[in-house]
Amino acid sequence: MNDGRQRIPEDSESRLERALRDGAPLMAAGPPQIADAAVSAGLLDVAYATLDSPVGTLMLACTKAGLACVAYLDPERGAEDVLARLAARLSPRILRAPRLLDEPRRELDEYFAGRRRSFDLPLDLGGLTPFTCRVLRAAAAIPYGEVATYAEVARVAGSPRGARAAGNALGSNPVPIVVPCHRVLHADGGLGGYTGGTSRKRALLAIEQGGTPG
Amino acid sequence: MRNLPPFQLLIDEHGAAVHRFLIATIGTGEADDCYQETFLAALRAYPALRDASNLRGWLLTIAHRKAIDAARARARRPMPVAEPGDLSDAAEPDPVPAGGELWSLVAALPCKQRAALALRFIGDCAYAEIASAMQTSPEAARRSVHEGLRRLRQEARR
Predict the structure, then answer these.
(1) Is residue B136 less than 8 Å (CB to CB) from chain A?
(2) Residue B140 included in any domain
(3) A112-166: per-residue pLDDT in tens?
(4) Domain count within chain B
(5) What's the domain range around A47?
(6) 3-state DSSP call for residue A120?
(7) Share of chain A above pLDDT 90, in %
(8) What is the ipTM metric for this complex?
(9) Contacts of A24 in chain B (CB under 8 A)
(10) Would you call A86 an interface residue with chain B, using a CB distance cutoff of 8 Å?
(11) Cα four-point dihedral sign A124, A125, A126, A127
(12) Is A56 left (phi over 0), alpha (psi -120 to 50) or beta?
């Protein structure tokens, strides 16, 4: 980094340089937001926002087609993992644009408050296999406050013997809560797995029983 | 090229430097517009970007081009003549860097030196990066930085 500075006295140059680095011009307001302009120009492929909920911070993302992601954020690792996966799955043209997620945020808030029993949101399930889509559709048909078994979901999805495969498909649900894979349990009443961990699964089921989450 | 980082990360990591670079080169009056144009142009080109190894340099290159475009457009516009009684700040002279006395001296330098100093000390660019942003040789980039520093020192002594 010291290239080409030898002709100028070291002392005076470094002081001037430091002053230039430290005194860099700033505007009080900082850089403007570009999300609105990007939307107008048709250049935004994925918008995202976070939502605080009784089951932790959620990351929500949508495309022009609809809601594409609900993800539980790991407080240690933050949003970067989820964003990188969205970039690979959908498009790297991703911006933080909370206003574009106002509707899903509102519906989820109502759900957590016990005031909403089903979601009225277009979904973007692009990139999923047809089987996964059938399984998710079967899970979405389980009414609020009720549960079904993995085998039942597999049967509705057209694979009567595919309980384990259905479990895997539910594990890759990109929009948990909205597609209620937490309502799918083992035949013996065991909780089974959940993308956000079983304590969250239990909390969501408790909300739907009119109990308090957690 | 797959596996490009999410574009929001480019803004989070480099947005402030791009903005300050534009304030220093084009002034507060047009920096925000140039900033938006820079990032929209980057967003448009992003999915086809082949080499993502120096995203900061890539953004500053676009910003430099937008600043030149804005300066040319300004030169083509008729000089605003203040009507009697018209004291609206629309006729505010540019470029006017906010804050940093030294940078207001930089604003008075010829545009090549101004851009080179801004890339060097705001963008934290190596000479090779300055050269690629300004489409010149590393040697010419180094000369512009040094000539700019020399003139600044003269001005500061006055």
Answers:
(1) no
(2) yes
(3) 999 999 999 999 998 899 999 999 999 999 999 999 999 999 999 999 999 999 9
(4) 1
(5) 35-112
(6) coil
(7) 75
(8) 0.85
(9) 20, 24, 100, 103, 121-122
(10) yes
(11) positive
(12) left
What was the pLDDT predicted at B68?
A: 92
Statement: residue A21 has pLDDT above 50: yes
Instruction: Go through B72-108 and write b for each residue having 16 or more CB atoms within 10 A of its CB, e for each that does not.
Output: eeeeeeeeeeeeeeeeeeeeeeebebeebebbbbbbe
Q: Are residues A47 and A105 in the same domain?
A: yes
CATH of the domain at A151: 1.10.10.10
Nearest to B4 among A41, A92, A96 (CB): A92
The residue in chain B having the minimum alpha-carbon distance to the alpha carbon of residue A32 is B32
Structural domain boundaries, residue B41 = 7-84+100-157
Three-class secondary structure of residue A78 per DSSP: coil
Residue A28 lies in a domain: no
pLDDT in tens, B11-65: 999 999 999 999 999 988 899 999 999 999 999 999 999 989 899 999 999 999 9
Residue of B nearest to A18 (CA): B121
> Is residue A184 domain-resident?
yes
